[in-house]
Give the backbone structure.
Amino acid sequence: MTTTRVWCDRCGEPETDGAHPGCASARRLEPPRFCHSCRRRMKVQVLPVGWSAICVEHGEIRG
């Protein structure tokens, strides 16, 4: 399943609102907080070896 990025996965604002330089720099160190497909807030768990983020609609991503 291919999904199009519609929402910023850090601030939850539309990707079409232009560049999100603050979000891009923060995402180098932090996991996503919002689903980029549906804008739902995700359940995020940070572990010593990485992170996981779960959207109730689109499932889990890991990093």
Remarks:
- The chain has a mean pLDDT of 89.
- The chain has one helix and three strands.
- The beta strands are 43-47, 50-55, 59-62.
- The helical segments are 21-27.
